[in-house]
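Renewal narrative, Specific Aim 1. Our central claim is that a sequence can be written position by position from structural information alone. The example that follows is taken directly from our test logs and has not been curated for this report. It begins with the structure tokens describing the chain, in the order in which they were read.
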């Protein structure tokens, strides 16, 4: 569990209002869950953020692959065939 808003505000020497606002933003963005009387807890890794990270990696890899394919004169259909072969595990 995360510290209570009041405890965190005291530890950081900031306003409880500031702490409350931060907790609300974290909950709205899907990073924590708050339960009345129980406290606030960190959620599991945000699935959308994780997907976005992987998408960036795929885009980077495919950009590199396309640049290399163009350098060696490969046509789009050839590149597509290679991708389908890799995707299919052949």
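The sequence written for that structure reads:
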């Amino acid at each position: 569990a995360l510290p209570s808003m009041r405890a965190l505000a005291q530890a950081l020497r900031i306003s409880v209002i500031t702490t409350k606002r931060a907790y609300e933003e974290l909950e709205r963005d899907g990073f924590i869950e708050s339960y009345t009387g129980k406290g606030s807890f960190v959620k599991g890794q945000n699935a959308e953020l994780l997907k976005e990270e992987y998408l960036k990696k795929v885009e980077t890899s495919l950009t590199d692959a396309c640049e290399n394919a163009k350098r060696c004169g490969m046509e789009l259909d050839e590149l597509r065939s290679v991708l389908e072969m890799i995707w299919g595990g052949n």
